């Protein structure tokens, strides 16, 4: 079957760095995405990795290791507004049906 | 430009009823996908449509159906509602049918089945 695992909750303070891990098990693999979702809001795209390595976009970076079926999202210089749920998602075919993880709820404390 | 718009934002139905949810994609986007998100969980894929054709279907019963119109808007229909259908229904659009990494989500329709 298809499954993704993420920590359920992470807590950090403003200005800190936090890493949210994601391991996946899918029948096919075309890329790993990360989405942010604030309470009551729509999921918003953060990053996408199709190849091994690190992708950096401002304060956010995402890493992928296909051999380990593992990726992570790194958030630097945390701000209060980063408090949200973060989902990893794997595209297991060439279409647009992504398999989402259960989500990690990040709480940023002052 | 407007983002993905969904209507209604909230809906309350009773068991056994039928519901229709609507989605307008971003202008120029030809692919629409539907996802179900139960509270505290990640979105779960229901359907993908591209150029009015179904391109993917998730593990949902036949009570769930969808269609896409010539203007690329889409409807999700759910028949014989069950309590377990209570969830946030998200619509996402993208330009192509595949190969793209980014989905643009609407704010969803919160469906409550009593």
Strand content of chain A: over 45%
Poorly predicted sequence stretches spanning 5 or more consecutive residues of chain B? none
Distance between the termini of chain B: 37 Å
Rg of chain B over CA atoms, rounded to whole Å, is 13 Å
Number of strands of chain B: 11
User: How helical, in percent, are the residues of chain B?
Assistant: under 10%
Sheet with the most strands, sense and barrel status of chain A: 6 strands, mixed
Total beta strands of chain A? 11
How much is the radius of gyration of chain A in Å?
13 Å
Outline of the structure:
The complex is a heterodimer of chains A (110) and B (114). With 110 residues, chain A is mostly beta strands. Chain A is built from no helices and 11 strands.
Keywords summarizing the entry:
heterodimer; A: mainly beta; six-stranded mixed β-sheet; five-stranded antiparallel β-sheet; B: 114 residues; mainly beta; seven-stranded mixed β-sheet; four-stranded antiparallel β-sheet
Q: What would your notes on this structure say?
A:
The complex is a heterodimer of chains A (110) and B (114). Chain A is mainly β and 110 residues long. Chain A contains no helices and eleven strands. In chain A, 0% of the residues lie in helices and 56% in strands. In chain A, strands 2, 4, 5, 9, 10 and 11 form a six-stranded mixed beta sheet that branches. In chain A, strands 1-3-8-7-6 form a five-stranded antiparallel beta sheet, with no helix packed on it. Chain B has 114 residues and is an all-beta fold. Helices cover 0% and strands 50% of the residues of chain B. Chain B has strands spanning 5-7, 10-13, 19-24, 31-37, 44-50, 53-57, 64-68, 74-78, 87-94, 104-105, 109-113. The radius of gyration of chain B is 13 Å and the shape is globular. The mean pLDDT of chain B is 93. Chains A and B meet through strand 5, strand 9 and strand 10 of A and strand 4, strand 5, strand 9 and strand 10 of B.
